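ok so i was messing around last nite and threw this chain in just to see what happens. nothing serious, just curious
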Amino acid sequence: MTAIPGSIAFDEYGRPFIILRDQDKQKRLTGNDAIK
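result:
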């Protein structure tokens, strides 16, 4: 995981998505925000 620029998190469905350090609050479109 150290080679990836950011962090890997899993949503409640078990799908992995990358959270960027600088855009973790602005571009979270893979989790629940993409569904809503």
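not much to say yet. The chain has one helix and two strands.
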